[in-house]
Write a structure and sequence with these properties.
two-stranded antiparallel ribbon; EGF-like domain-containing protein; EGF-like domain; EGF
């Protein structure tokens, strides 16, 4: 079976939508090649039977549906198949400053303009404008002659006599007022004056008499004579304003000719200011300004920087520690180089962030200035102002020793509260006596015999004893003691070997009774314990 393309039917798909034009609705024509209907504009469907609308609501912006033609009948100003196209889509579609109403797609015309796109102005040629007005062909607006107004210049100065003031009459041909003697103006409202502005230099118009009432310092019919004509008419450095004919007084001076200053006596000046009787000006105390010195550095705390507070009695800023200046705006530093000894400037607070051991606004105070600032023999490094502590001491001023109480010293040592150094018990050394000292004892037993030659060595105990000098440093004594002990030990061993050899030789030559038993308590050669040395 044949699967027919859209619009075709029949066993072999040979039947199209039309065979003749009359098969196509609403003016459509039959394409005899394709057997398809070619629909007229606005119609669709296989046989062109679908129009733009079926009911009124299918047509936009108030259009109605013609049920005979199935076409939308658009309201004035709208076009398009469903009337969806209005006079405008954007403001630029409207002429002469009109704007597009995006709800209605209609142009909202500026005053004086009409038409779908506001293209019709008040005039097209001069004759469209009345009373001598001319047409501006760029704007299509009438340019009215003096005294006339209105879209086409049709409104004159008057329409009836009552429109003209002070007895003037209306010329109905020209719509202009014919003024009585002494008056002028469009409506004859100008006498010597009609409004205050007709009077010079701030004078006011008396509307009953139309005469000028002059401001202080001015005279004349229209108040045209002022307080001065040249600078010398003004006192205390004032100058004459040739436009106003008034004296322009120097700061702090007032009066018609600038003869009044800020003060005449000291009490006219605030916060301790004094009055200069030559210039009549207040000489303000430091930190105060203003004509009478009434303005201080602050009025509220927020006028003072970096936590300063405002003294409402003096109007002066009371600065937080480290800050100066009228409003406390100057800190200890602005750049790192303002801070001493390699510290940095905190640019938020303008304060120096001092390194450990330094104090002061700019970190210029160290731990010491002279050696005496350092305790227990420490010395002051004048480059860094830091204490160089003696061995065993620490702390900013070397005030911390090895101990503060006996319990800081180990193995029974005691704390010397004068030097803060540990005095170690016998046999111990080290800063806190934590190091023990090994005992070094040399013992030798020599059996006496009648045949034994005497060699100058006593059969009593041989001792090597090193007594520390109370004046020598303990560390030196310790070293000497060790050297003495080891050296003495070596010498003693050599002597013992020699003695043994002599004894053996004698025993071989002569018979001797068995050697007597040595009594340890009397005959043993014993070397006393070594003394204890304590490192400083």
């Amino acid at each position: 079976m044949c699967m027919c393309a859209a619009g075709y039917t029949g066993t072999t798909c040979g039947t199209g939508a039309c065979a003749v034009d009359s098969d196509c609705e609403y003016g459509g024509t039959c394409d005899l090649t394709t057997l398809m209907c070619m629909c007229a504009a606005g119609y669709t469907g296989t046989t062109c039977g679908t129009g733009a609308c079926a009911v009124d609501s299918d047509c936009e912006y108030g259009g109605t549906c013609d049920l005979t033609t199935l076409m939308c009948m658009c309201a004035t100003g709208y076009t398009g198949t469903t009337c969806g196209t209005g006079a405008c889509a954007v403001d630029s579609d409207c002429e002469y400053g009109g704007t597009c109403d995006l709800t209605t797609l209609m142009c909202m015309c500026a005053t004086g303009y009409t038409g779908t796109t506001c293209g019709t102005g008040a005039c097209a040629v001069d004759s469209d404008c009345e009373y001598g007005g001319t047409c501006d062909l760029t704007t299509l607006m009438c340019m009215c002659a003096t005294g006339y107004t209105g879209t086409t210049c049709g409104t004159g100065a008057c329409a009836v006599d009552s429109d003209c003031e002070y007895g003037g009459t209306c010329d109905l041909t020209t719509l202009m007022c014919m003024c009585a003697a002494g008056y002028s103006g469009t409506t004859c409202g100008t006498g010597a004056c009609a409004v205050d502005s007709d009077c010079e230099y701030g004078g006011t118009c008396d509307l009953t008499t139309l005469m000028c009432m002059c401001a202080t310092g001015y005279t004349g019919t229209t108040c045209g004579t002022g307080a001065c004509a040249v600078d010398s008419d003004c006192e205390y450095g004032g100058t004459c304003d040739l436009t106003t004919l008034m004296c322009m007084c120097a700061t702090g001076y007032t009066g018609t000719t600038c003869g009044t200053g800020a003060c005449t006596v000291d009490s006219d000046c605030e916060y301790g200011g004094t009055c200069d009787l030559t210039t009549l000006m207040c000489m303000c105390a430091t930190g105060y300004t203003g004509t009478t010195c009434g303005t201080g550095a602050c009025a509220v705390d927020s006028d003072c920087e970096y936590g300063g507070t405002c003294d409402l009695t003096t109007l002066m800023c009371m600065c937080a520690a480290g800050y100066t200046g009228t409003t406390c705006g100057t800190g200890a530093c602005a750049v790192d180089s303002d801070c001493e000894y390699g510290v940095t400037c905190d640019l938020t607070t303008l304060m120096c962030m001092c390194a450990a051991g330094y104090t002061g606004t700019t970190c210029g105070t160290g731990a010491c200035a002279v050696d005496s600032d350092c305790e227990y023999g420490g010395t002051c490094d004048l480059t860094t102002l830091m204490c160089m502590c003696a061995t065993g001491y620490t702390g900013t001023t070397c005030g911390t020793g090895a101990c503060a109480v006996d319990s800081d010293c180990e193995y029974g040592g005691t704390c010397d509260l004068t030097t803060l150094m540990c005095m170690c018990a016998t046999g111990y050394t080290g800063t806190t006596c934590g190091t023990g000292i090994s005992d070094t004892t040399t013992k030798a037993t020599i059996g006496p015999t009648s045949q034994a030659p005497t060699s100058g060595i006593s059969d009593r105990t041989t001792e090597a004893t090193i007594e520390p000098s109370s004046q020598a440093p303990l560390s030196v004594l310790s070293t000497l003691a060790i050297i003495g002990i080891y050296g003495g030990s070596v010498l003693l061993i050599v002597l013992i070997v020699l003695i043994v050899l002599v004894v053996v030789l004698i025993c071989g030559l002569k018979k001797r009774p068995p050697p007597r038993k040595v009594n340890p308590s009397t005959d043993q050669a014993e070397v006393h314990d070594n003394p204890t040395y304590v490192d400083a």
